[in-house]
Amino acid sequence: MIFDAHCDVLYQLQKDPEKTFSDPALHVTYERLKKTKAKVQCFAVFLSPSVKPHDRFRSALEQIDLFYTKVISPYPDMKAITTKQELNELKEGEIGAVLTLEGGEAIEEDPLKLATLYRLGVRSVGLTWNHANALADGVMAKRGAGITELGSEVIRMLNEWKVWTDVSHLSERAFWEVMEQADLPIASHSNCYRLCPHPRNLKDEQIQALIQKDGMIGLSFVPFFIKEHGKVYAQDILAHVEHICELGGENHLGFGSDFDGIDEMIEGWSSYEAYDEWMNLLHRHYSASQAKKFLFANFSSRFPG
Question: What is the predicted pLDDT for the residue at 305?
Answer without folding.
Answer: 82
